[in-house]
């Protein structure tokens, strides 16, 4: 296989990866707190031999998480929280602490606020948020102070990755930051509101069409190259 085919194959592999990411984004248009992901293409240069030109190939191993604020939808739920600004909620999962923008919580039988998957919501000090079962009125202030019947309970923490480019999706709306987390800048917390997916449906569908066309173009080149090689071998074999 010649260099042109190698380059095309690496490009096709990257386009397949991007198509999968775009499709995943579109599938989560209605997922609360979902953040769109993108693929980052990089150039990989490989030496081909002394005195010969190097071979430049595409690599699509990088990714990015969109920081754009999603639309806010009023639900009226007591334990539905949304962040207006930067930062993430910190939750405790079986695999360790993780970040999320999905603020739909429920009160467990033990009185702790948890995600629908059972992950504990943590406060500004990294401790679970506890709400007494006997409390009649639960309110959340703009600064994250959670109160029961007018008495402050705790302050919900807002966190961010130490390295913003190091944010990695663990699953769905849960992210991890291998570089660690730190307190986020002050932001406004809202009660009875949920942040919607920040996926731009028009932009994602347009990108899907672009990726599909680019892939088809590359496939046409590979088919033509395959036919050329077959014809060469057939001709050479008849000599």
Explain this structure.
With 239 residues, the protein is of the alpha+beta class. 26% of the residues lie in helices and 32% in strands. It has two helices and 18 strands. The strands form seven sheets. Strands 9-5-6-15-14 form a five-stranded antiparallel sheet, with no helix packed on it. The protein has a three-stranded antiparallel sheet with strand order 10-11-12, with no helix packed on it. Strand 14 and strand 15 form a beta hairpin. Helix 1 (3-27) packs antiparallel against helix 2 (201-237). The protein is elongated, with a radius of gyration of 25 Å. The protein starts with a helix and ends with a helix. The model has no long low-confidence stretch (mean pLDDT 86).
N→C terminal distance: 22 Å
SSE-based structural type: alpha+beta
Supply the number of helical segments.
2
Pick out the low-confidence regions.
Answer: none
Counting DSSP E segments of at least 2 residues, the number of strands comes to 18
Helix content: 25-40%
Based on CA inertia axes, which overall geometry fits? elongated
Strand order of the largest sheet: 9-5-6-15-14
The run of helices and strands is HEEEEEEEEEEEEEEEEEEH
- The overall average pLDDT, rounded, is 86
In percent, how much strand structure appears in the residues? 25-35%
Summarize the main sheet. Answer: 5 strands, antiparallel
Rg for CA atoms: 25 Å
